[in-house]
């Protein structure tokens, strides 16, 4: 330890001036602390225990050494007492003085080291010695002069470097390399200098807030005398901008050089003032021109990829080279001039094509880019809605009035809806606003053609629920019904759907053509949940009638089982639940008439006051037939109309069309369809003469004795006549009649509540309450009708004011 060495030197020669001067030079104002003395005392005590003869004589110590001691000597010299009474340590009486030429000698040594660092030469002194020299100067309160001398020396060196940058022969890249080399050397030199003058930096500089640290002083000198020079600053910034421009044009540049110089500007605190504004101005000019040119030249998908590439490049440049303060203005500049200023044009030019071709990746990119600019998603959503309305209107509105085109309408709507849903889910992130825009658009275009979409949706459901539909499993059918229900929600004329759906459901139930009872009831449940119990009450009544009819038929068979065997099933239909069927009069065989009377007597015996009306057009029979080959017995499942025609051939081999019509009483059009199904279908149980696909009044028919078929029971379907315009108009008319009743009820309900109401407010209330599309002239007619029927009256003074008549 230093204090122990000091004590040893004192004991060796307490008055040695050289030792004293050396101690003053190396350790000014150094004190001998009591802890060192105590340690020395402990060592002496340990020594006395091991060898009492080796205890030194402290009485010989010189007082000038700063140690005062007292020991008690024993009377008997032969016996030594091992206890020392007291050891006291005091400071020097006089403070050591500084050599006369200490400051000059020390600075010469430090100056030589600084010059060696600046010239990249070897330093003659060790770093420890130089560091100690700085520490000693600070200890002797010479720090102020030392800092000034160091700053002056560094300033001289930095100024000397300016001249090399003023040569005009250097091109911009050589100039940038030269200034980067100078900057790197300056930083290395300042780091080395600071390591030598670290004691000065951590004591004097920290205690004086008005002066810069050694590192900041070096930066300030470089900024003042080199980079702040107008020529140097201009050439540096222009060179950097040219490097960035070359890189943006696709050339390979020295990115490390770019990164280093931009960090230099940032470290010197002139990045914003000298570089950033010029850089952003150059960026704006580049992307303004590029955006205007490319948005016209390129396809939208190519342009979007280019914009995305540019944004990625700028982000990478920000991450690797530029200061982070530039991020927001730079990215905003790129987004504004490549996207925001051209967003409407981009969407109008290419959105339809992207959606038509279902280009998912480009649509995803478009959505992401739109989300980056102000009102981008709003514009995308508006153009998206326009596309849905335009495309949907093409599907729904049949400008050519082609019935074949209408057949595919619902399937096209479902496919279109699936495609739009997929785009919203995959490309637009299931954004709720896009979903709402899609719903509004579908509701808009699907109701531009009044009533027809509702009718076609009902017929489409019928085609999927009808027996023989093998296109889908039960799970797939359930999913399909859910999709159909989504389209159903968009239509306003739900009562039109109900009318046509009820008519088709009746056919499926009565003829037994329903694919699945579970599917039928599932669809009914969905409709009930969607529209309420009142909407499905009649449909549920139809299912209830079918169940009750089974029980009635079973009871009928059991009641007549003992008296006679009648193989007959009857469906009892409540007239209010089922569609209105026209009354058809035909000539039934006496046996069938007898069966009808037996059943009528049975049924009315249980249900008094009811009236039965038979519907021959809905009946069907199973006939047992024998042909020439006695073994070729077959069972033929046919409609009642087909049955009446076939039974005639029991008494005749050949009959004319006129004869058959007179015998059966079937209406001409219906009879032609019936005979066509028997004589022109796949299973021909009668022959038509002359041959042909159509039945004429002059044709004759002959029983096919040689009929053969691989099946025992053969079902001959009645040829379904295409729905005529009259039948369609009849169904629509019934819907209109029902709507009139609903309008009348709504008017009376509103007037009963309000008592007195103006015409305008009444019409407004009606529009809010009615769930189907209706026009003001139609409402006005219903109001006039109610006035005539004295449900309400006009005000005597104001004809536009109505009063409810109680």
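Q: What amino acid sequence fits the structure above?
A:
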């Amino acid at each position: 330890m230093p204090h122990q060495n000091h004590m040893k030197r004192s004991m060796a020669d307490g008055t040695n001036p050289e030792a004293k001067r050396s101690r003053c030079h190396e350790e000014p104002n150094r004190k001998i602390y009591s802890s060192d003395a105590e340690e020395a005392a402990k060592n002496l005590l340990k020594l006395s225990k091991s060898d009492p003869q080796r205890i030194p004589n402290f009485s010989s110590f010189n007082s000038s050494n700063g140690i005062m001691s007292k020991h008690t000597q024993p009377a008997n010299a032969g016996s030594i007492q091992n206890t020392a009474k007291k050891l006291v340590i005091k400071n020097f009486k006089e403070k050591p003085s500084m050599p006369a030429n200490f400051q000059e000698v020390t600075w010469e040594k430090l100056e030589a080291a600084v010059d060696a660092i600046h010239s990249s030469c070897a330093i003659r002194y060790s770093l420890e010695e130089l560091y100690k020299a700085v520490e000693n100067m600070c200890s002797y309160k010479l720090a102020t002069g030392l800092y000034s001398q160091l700053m002056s020396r560094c300033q001289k060196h930095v100024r000397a470097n300016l001249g090399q940058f003023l040569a005009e022969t250097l091109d911009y890249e050589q100039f940038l390399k030269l200034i980067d080399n100078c900057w790197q050397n300056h930083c290395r030199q300042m780091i080395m200098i600071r390591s030598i003058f670290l004691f000065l930096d951590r004591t004097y500089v920290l205690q004086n807030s008005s002066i810069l640290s050694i590192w900041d002083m070096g930066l300030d000198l470089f900024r003042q005398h080199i980079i702040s020079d107008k020529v140097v600053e201009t050439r540096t910034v222009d060179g950097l901008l040219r490097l960035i421009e070359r890189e943006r044009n696709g050339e390979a540049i020295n990115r490390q050089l770019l990164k280093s110089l931009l960090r230099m500007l940032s470290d010197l605190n002139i990045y914003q003032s000298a570089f950033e504004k010029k850089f952003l101005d150059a960026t704006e000019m580049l992307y303004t021109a590029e955006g205007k040119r490319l948005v016209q030249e390129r396809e939208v998908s190519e342009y979007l990829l280019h914009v995305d590439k540019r944004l990625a490049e700028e982000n990478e440049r920000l991450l690797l080279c530029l200061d982070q303060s530039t991020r927001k203005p730079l990215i905003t500049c790129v987004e504004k001039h490549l996207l925001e200023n051209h967003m409407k044009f981009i969407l109008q030019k290419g959105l339809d094509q992207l959606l038509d071709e279902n280009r998912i990746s480009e649509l995803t990119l478009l959505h992401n880019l739109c989300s980056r600019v102000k009102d981008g998603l709003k514009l995308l959503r508006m153009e998206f809605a326009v596309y849905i309305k335009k495309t949907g209107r093409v599907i729904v509105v049949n400008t050519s009035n082609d019935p074949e085109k209408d057949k595919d309408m619902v399937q096209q709507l479902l496919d279109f809806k699936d495609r739009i849903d997929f785009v919203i889910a995959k490309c637009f992130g299931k954004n709720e606003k896009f979903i709402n825009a899609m719903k509004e658009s579908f509701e808009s275009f699907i109701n531009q053609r009044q009533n027809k979409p509702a009718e076609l949706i009902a017929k489409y459901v019928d085609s999927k629920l009808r027996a023989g539909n093998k296109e889908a499993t039960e799970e797939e059918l359930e999913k399909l019904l859910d999709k159909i229900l989504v389209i159903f929600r968009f239509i306003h004329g739900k009562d039109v759907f109900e009318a046509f759906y009820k008519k088709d459901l009746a056919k499926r139930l009565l003829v037994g053509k329903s694919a699945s009872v579970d599917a039928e009831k599932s669809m009914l449940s969905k409709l009930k949940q969607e529209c309420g119990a009142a909407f499905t009450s009649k449909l549920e009544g139809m299912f209830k009638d079918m169940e009750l009819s089974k029980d009635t038929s079973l009871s009928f068979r059991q009641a007549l089982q003992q008296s006679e065997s009648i193989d007959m099933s009857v469906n009892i239909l409540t007239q209010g639940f089922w569609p209105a069927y026209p009354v058809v009069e035909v000539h039934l065989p006496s046996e069938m008439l007898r069966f009808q009377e037996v059943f009528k007597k049975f049924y009315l015996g249980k249900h008094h006051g009811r009236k039965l009306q038979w519907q021959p057009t809905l009946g069907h029979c199973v006939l047992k037939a024998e042909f020439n080959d006695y073994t070729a017995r077959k069972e033929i499942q046919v409609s009642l109309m087909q049955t009446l025609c076939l039974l005639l051939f029991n008494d005749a081999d050949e009959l004319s069309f006129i004869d058959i019509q007179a015998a059966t009483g079937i209406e001409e059009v219906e009879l032609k369809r019936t005979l066509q199904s028997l004589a022109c279908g796949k299973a021909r149980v009668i022959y038509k003469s002359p041959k042909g696909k159509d039945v004429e009044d002059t044709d004759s028919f002959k029983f096919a004795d040689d009929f053969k078929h691989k099946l025992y029971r053969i079902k001959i379907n009645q040829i379904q006549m295409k729905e005529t315009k009259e039948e369609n108009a009849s169904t629509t008319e019934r819907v209109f009649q029902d709507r009139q009743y609903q309008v009348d009820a709504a008017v009376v309900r509103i007037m009963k509540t309000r008592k007195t109401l103006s015409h305008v407010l009444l019409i407004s209330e009606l529009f809010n309450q009615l769930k189907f599309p209706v026009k003001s002239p139609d409402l006005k007619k219903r109001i006039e009708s109610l006035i005539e029927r004295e449900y309400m009256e006009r005000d005597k003074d104001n004809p536009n004011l109505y009063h409810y008549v109680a």
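Q: And what stands out in the fold?
A: The chain is about 60% helix and 5% strand.
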